Amino acid sequence: MIEIKNLTKKLSHNIILDSINLSVKKGEILGLLGPNGAGKTTTMKIITSFWSPTSGSVKIDGLDTTTNSIATRKKIGYLPETVPLYDEMRVYEYLKFVAEVRGVSKNDIKERIKSVVSSCGLKQVIRKPIEELSKGYRQRVGLAQAIIHEPDILILDEPTTGLDPNQIVEIRELIKRLGEKKTVIFSTHILSEVTATCDRAVIINDGRIVAEGTPDELIKKASGKEIIYTKVKGPKEDVLRILREMENVEEVKETDKEAEEVYGYEITPKTGVDLREYLFLSIKDNGWSMIELYRKSVSLEDVFKDLTN
Amino acid sequence: MIKIKEINWNDWRVIYTLFKKELMGYFNSPIAYIFIGVFLVMGNWLFFKNFYLIGQISLRGYFDLLPWIFLFLSPALTMRLWAEEKKTGTIEFLLTLPVTDLQVVLGKFFGALAFLFISLLLTISLPFTLVSLGNIDWGPVIGGYLGALFLGGSYIAIGLFISSLTKNQIIAFILSLVGCFTAFIIGADFVLLGTPQFLVPVFKFLGLGNHFFNIAKGIIDSKDIIYYCSFIFIFLWLNIKTIESRGWK
Hints:
The complex is a heterodimer. Chain A is an alpha/beta fold. Chain A has helices spanning 40-47, 69-74, 91-101, 106-119, 135-147, 165-179, 191-197, 215-222, 236-245, 276-285, 300-308; strands at 2-11, 14-24, 29-33, 55-60, 63-64, 76-79, 153-157, 183-188, 200-205, 208-213, 227-233, 249-259, 262-269, 289-296. In chain A, the strands form three sheets. Chain A has a six-stranded mixed beta sheet, with helices on both faces. The longest helix of chain A has 15 residues, at 165-179. By secondary structure, chain B is an all-alpha fold. Chain B is 78% helix and 0% strand. Chain B has twelve helices and no strands. Chain B has helices at 9-27, 31-54, 60-88, 90-94, 101-121, 125-133, 138-163, 169-185, 189-192, 200-206, 208-216, 222-244. The longest helix of chain B is centred in the first third of the chain and has 29 residues, at 60-88.
């Protein structure tokens, strides 16, 4: 559906995007992840034909977004990061304008407005001027605008920034619902959002794709090394020595001190070995007491930090 | 590139929708009412101030004033057209719609022109007031209105182009005012006195003013019409070029 090939964008000698290759299948919800300034927004601006690439291409259903941009723009609904709306218009007037200019036929316009108003929950504000709307409602008007022509593809640039937690959940649900029928690309730097909504995630850093896969795959990739945390009551030096001498241990770090003689340690075992039972027994055999023991699971946050620093 | 044959009915529908949005944009904000108010009061007052002194039943005095009134008012109409879209970011929405840059520029141009046309229409009471005072020569009146529309169109084309160069409406206003003033004054006699001899015919031809006064005399010459159309075309073309070059720097 969307084919991005060797996409490069330079702005006054700064390389914003460096040879990005990406393909998005029909019906997929793809999360674009990355720190600020990584190139997420630029990628979206090029997919939507707002900017043209320096080199490389974006094709939508085989049509190039530079040479066939009117055709590709028709297939896309776009919500830019800043949620630009015409403030002096009323919500109804604005949606009508978008429907008209996007070529929705006259007979269908009322029906479509009704449908987006109900799916985005805009009923209460339909007669209000846009400048009077709260941030949450603006975001919903922005979404309504993006889906009014029933596009196959939705491009949403950080659709949940600046919303309160309840609104975030609502918008996320909406995206998920829309994603059942449409291809959705959205960018975010909230990682839980990716786990909650995406089929697949792409992590971008410095204009390059650094990782790609389902959220689970990404976590697995980075969690090749798992970490065991334990808190032991006993003399620090002896505990450290015993732990280091243990089989299948790669690294031991002392991390914190709770009280006299009570220290926390992080142990990195060799891949694929479950050390927990053996660890417990050897602490017990030395006459010390184990106060805590758990496996530290790697989160998407760790993956992200790892890949983008 | 602009290919004329590619324009079909559907393209005109898009231009019409954009045009409607721009025109409504004026009436949705206080700008429209302030503009029309100032335009009517200033025009009428300045005209009638001299009208009884001169004692002639003619609108000539009015059409002599009009270029100067337009000089201040048309930059006010065009300053926001691009600058505001750039400032609020709606330009990104507008230019990712399935519309060409040409369509957007034409929609904005005709939107502003239509507003100017409506304001001119409201001054139509002037010639009819004069009719009640005696005989009036309709040739210069019709010519004056037609010339005003072409002159206004040229001012709008300059202002629209300049608005696309900045995010700041005040800058757009001031630069447009300077631009329109220069284009208007360049062919005037007191400017020509100080220009080198070989440039005089060029300046005389290029100035917006001379062509306006020709038409306003009631002599509608195709030369003047073609001049205005080319003038407008050049600035709209420049406008399209600046819009196309977004995201290049």
